[in-house]
Amino acid sequence: MASIYNKLFAKFYDLFMNGFEKGLVKNRQELVSGLKGRVLEVGSGTGVNFEFYNEDAQVVAIEPSTPMIRVSKAKQCHCQSIDFLNISITDEVLFEHIEEQSFDFIISTLVLCTVNNPKQAILNYKKLLKPNGKLVVLEHIHSSKKTHKRLQNFANPFWNVFSEGCNLNRNTDKLLLEGGFKPLEHKYFVRSLKWVQGVYEKD
Ligand SMILES: C[S@@+](CC[C@H](N)C(=O)[O-])C[C@H]1O[C@@H](n2cnc3c(N)ncnc32)[C@H](O)[C@@H]1O
User: Fold this and answer.
1) Contact between residue 65 and residue 10 where contact means Cβ atoms under 8 Å apart
2) Cα 186 to ligand 1 centroid, rounded to whole Å
3) Exposure of 147 by Cβ count < 10 A (0-12 exposed, 13-18 middle, 19+ buried)?
4) What domains lie within the chain, and their CATH numbers?
5) Fewer Cβ atoms within 10 A, N terminus or C terminus of the chain?
6) Atom of ligand 1 nearest to the CA of 166
7) How far is the CA of 202 from the centre of ligand 1 (A)?
8) pLDDT 10s digits, 134-150
9) Is 36 exposed, middle or buried (0-12, 13-18, 19+ CB in 10 A)?
10) How much is the pTM?
């Protein structure tokens, strides 16, 4: 059952992220608006991506937080259809709910910073994508500047508690390469944090 903190986090998430999100609108639009076919959105949260889908996308939104799903259901998805799955991407029963090699796209935005086991999540992304499927990523990663890196390492335990498990110091870009994905398009940028944005295919 959801805790009071889970409920409050979901309720105030959009408000808290508002300023931050203004800087990410174009990135989200760029990544999401062209997706067609079966799309798995991992950690769909409050549904910030929903408005960017087009009517050729059949979305499955997987999200372990019930309060987050509740908030996202109030958002309009511009997709053809959307189904919600209230479990974790690393859940043992994942493949009882969704078939392997059944998605044209997986979209992972601001989520590999938070998942309990990112290596397992990436392995499951690989299993869930069709052979020619694409992984679409927008994730904040550990800074490459020495001082920022140290600061993020120091702040991480506090930030982690405050932000429901988000980590400031994950090298998600490296984990993706190690996990068997290769970038088709790939860029880094700094907007308060360092970000990786890209489209990947299975190695
Ligand atoms: C920072 S929010 C980002 C939400 C959304 N992806 C976005 O771009 O705005 C991270 C989300 O990942 C979800 N999450 C955390 N662990 C997860 C897991 N193991 N599997 C799937 N989603 C997870 C959280 O519940 C939360 O909704």
Assistant:
1) yes
2) 22
3) exposed
4) 4-202 (3.40.50.150)
5) N
6) 1
7) 22
8) 999 999 999 999 999 99
9) middle
10) 0.96
